[in-house]
Amino acid sequence: MPPETPATPLLEVQGLQKHFKVRHSRNPVKAVEQLSFAVPAGSTFAIVGESGCGKTTCAKLILGLEPPSAGSIRFDGRDVASLAGADRRTWRRQVQAVFQDPYASLNPRLRVATIVAEPILANEKPTRAELDRRIAELLDVVGLPADAARRYPHEFSGGQRQRVAIARALALRPRLLVLDEPTSALDVSIRAQILNLLSDIQQQYGLTYLLIAHDLALVEHFADAVGVMYLGDMVEQGPTAQVFGAPRHPYTRALLASVLRPDPDVPLPVGMIRGEIGSALAPPPGCKFHPRCPQAIDACRSDKPVPTPFSPLHWAACHVEAARATGAPTAAAPAAGAGTHLEPALP
């Protein structure tokens, strides 16, 4: 098992699994497999990986939008699956989401005041004066003027719409925010503003963030810890500085190598993975990354690697790295199709 976080976690996931049945197929889509991680209160945990690796499915499981096939989700020490009635309603209030596309996540027919007020009215019975006060406070927190309450989403820019979405997420005073690619639909010039806003809000309210992201630069700047997913599995996990500074899994190294530097004099990176991510309907045996891994050994093709700790909080699931850590030999034939110059895994 991966090493445990010493701090008391607000969110703790153990052995989480999600399989989707497919018509005309005996095999399910294995979207998430045996996912385990813990997020201490007040911190930010990021999940990164290519499209199709299971990041968003994990977010939906945490939010209760999909039931897990196996495993457990514990929030503030309590198993979410065991919650019912008032306890489950309280949990739902405490876990909110900010979605990727503010153009799609806001109802275009409602004014901003109604959008922000909806979660409050669904859970509480405030007076009109109290509701107006809370709406004004929420808009102020996200940096929008008071008159924004009377306007419709189409009257705002993308960054302003995302601020409205954040205000709505904060309306019930949650403890955990699930941020699913919160800046990917925004212009580059606006992304820093939204990230700074989220950082300020986290410090002001002591929020805990679960961040789903493609942008590795964003994760390096914003997250305290990071988990790297590949085809439903967590292949590496640890404090962001350790994972980015000394990556142990070849997939993590490939992701970091694929980040282009904003300098025309820096040559294009080499040594990255090629090919497409495997099928979640029929994933490769052993290590799922082995068909694309330039250092795969025979064990990678038959045996699923277990997490190997490299520091108290940093681990990776890789046969080769585990052998190196113990001094064992790693003689191997190269993976099928592996080469010295490989194509980028990410755009």
Automatic annotation (TrEMBL):
Domain ABC transporter, first and last residues per copy: 11-256
GO molecular function, one term: ATP hydrolysis activity
GO biological process terms, semicolon-separated: peptide transport; transmembrane transport
Pfam families cross-referenced by the UniProt entry: ABC_tran, oligo_HPY
Entry-linked InterPro entries: AAA+_ATPase, ABC_transp_ATP-bind, ABC_transporter-like_ATP-bd, ABC_transporter-like_CS, Oligopep_ABC_C, P-loop_NTPase
Keywords, alphabetical: ATP-binding, Cell membrane, Membrane, Nucleotide-binding, Transport
Stored PANTHER family: D,D-DIPEPTIDE TRANSPORT ATP-BINDING PROTEIN DDPF-RELATED (PTHR43776:SF7), TRANSPORT ATP-BINDING PROTEIN (PTHR43776)
Family: Belongs to the ABC transporter superfamily.
Protein name: Peptide/nickel transport system ATP-binding protein/oligopeptide transport system ATP-binding protein
